[in-house]
């Protein structure tokens, strides 16, 4: 019988790439991780890992076992959800992750409704960039997350995560109103010589800004890096450049900022660990977020 905890370590090695990273994720020593993976290999009876110098990679059998591990871990999540549904009432901690522009817009009404309808739930919110959310869900640092990608920079589905669609937003090019004049044609093409305000390198917003400009045939001249859309719009209003801003980030733009709609959309989903969708606390969060989003858009 294969040990589930060791299967999880193998799955995380496939995801994280190094023994050291797996050890850090689980608060183990690298030696302990190596010993557990060696024990799993003995249980499997076939080589799962290949060592080349100091690096390690998965064999074809190891990669195949990782796919089965995802199914096994999802089944355990579903089993936990079934047991939770058999209990009376909802209680315990629910860790909710959200990207910054969702926190003041979509999340408050959902938190109020959850607190009213399920007062024994302990709700904890963490603000995260979407690129960090799948790992946080897998590592059980989050139970539910508001996650997004863009149609111009789609993200491959994570095999350990399930989701439901929540919201599609138009993305705008924010420009200084007093210097832009009457924009005609493609706004992005018109901004090829402008200074740009983009997200911190490594964030999804940074990737999308570069991708949109590269699709238009140029590399943006980046003047500022900012991740908070209120700060971004303030910099645009001060004539410091132009920026991409989605609807939720542009709810109260300064008077001297123009928002030019683009054929670019940000797509938000509610995500949770694969198999956990039937957990009563997860289902309650999904319902509350869907209701708060409908109310916000209306």
TrEMBL record:
Question: Entry's SUPFAM superfamilies?
Answer: Periplasmic binding protein-like II, Winged helix' DNA-binding domain
Q: Which family does it belong to?
A: Belongs to the LysR transcriptional regulatory family.
Q: Where is the signal peptide?
A: none
The answer to whether UniProt assigns keyword DNA-binding to this entry is yes
Cite the entry's keywords alphabetically.
Answer: DNA-binding, Transcription, Transcription regulation
What GO cellular component entries does it have? protein-DNA complex
Q: Name one GO molecular function term.
A: DNA binding
Question: Which Pfam family, just one, is annotated for this protein?
Answer: HTH_1
Can you say what this protein is called? DNA-binding transcriptional LysR family regulator
Q: Where is the HTH lysR-type domain?
A: 2-59
